[in-house]
């Protein structure tokens, strides 16, 4: 992750580091950039020539600290998380990483835009694991009444869910009907 910063141990200069990782080739005090390079690196005229500033060649891309590369978007089930660290001060593109959406949330990847926050599953739906691109509907006899849930609740005895999937509540059995078990979708007629 330190490939684009000035390396102070004298083993590799920032120019060499940028060149070694597809930013270009060191040619003395400047860089000869490769046309297909995913990074653009250059020294600034008003800054010491030992400091190289780099950015993604495509201005819509962001620098991913996990892969040490420029990426166009996060995958479905992920969101972008910015990283604020002095380690990346010489990268002028947005710096961060893709992280999985947490339980109860989801995201659908997009090639046209960045997802900075995951969306909550709506009432009647849930995600029980991280990194989901869609929410699952509650099964019959279960429900969630709140957004952003990690599991569905079971309807207690004497109540049922009106829907076969995606219920947001359990309702009381009407007079003359009953449910003797938890998690029912119908109330039975009284004997």
Please describe the topology of this protein.
Elements lengths: L13 H7 L4 E3 L2 E3 L6 E4 L10 E4 L5 E3 L4 E3 L6 E5 L12 E6 L4 E2 L12 E2 L4 E2 L9 E2 L4 E2 L9 E2 L4 E2 L10 E2 L4 E2 L9 E2 L2
Parallel strand pairs: 5-8
Antiparallel strand pairs: 1-2, 3-4, 5-6, 7-8, 9-10, 11-12, 13-14, 15-16, 17-18
Calculate the mean pLDDT score and round it: 79
Largest sheet: 4 strands, mixed
Radius of gyration over C-alpha positions, nearest whole angstrom:
27 Å
Give the ordered list of helices and strands.
HEEEEEEEEEEEEEEEEEE
Structural class: mainly beta
Please state the oligomeric state of the protein chains shown: single chain
State which percent range the strand residues make up: 25-35%
Order the strands across the largest sheet as they lie in space.
Answer: 6-5-8-7
Tell me the number of helical segments per DSSP (H or I, 4 or more residues long). Answer: 1
Regions with little confidence, pLDDT below 50 for 5+ residues: 1-16, 21-33
Query: What distance lies between the first and last C-alpha atoms, to the nearest angstrom?
Result: 71 Å
Helix content: under 10%
Report the count of strand segments. Answer: 18
Identify the overall geometry. rod-shaped
Keywords:
4% helix; four-stranded mixed sheet; 191 residues; 18 strands; single chain; mainly beta; 1 helix
Question: What would you note in describing this structure?
Answer:
The chain has a four-stranded mixed sheet, with no helix packed on it. A two-stranded antiparallel ribbon has the order 1-2. The chain has a two-stranded antiparallel ribbon with strand order 3-4. Residues 1-16 and 21-33 have low confidence and may be disordered. It has one helix and 18 strands. Strand 1 and strand 2 form a beta hairpin. Helix content is 4%, strand content 27%. It has 191 residues and is mostly beta strands.
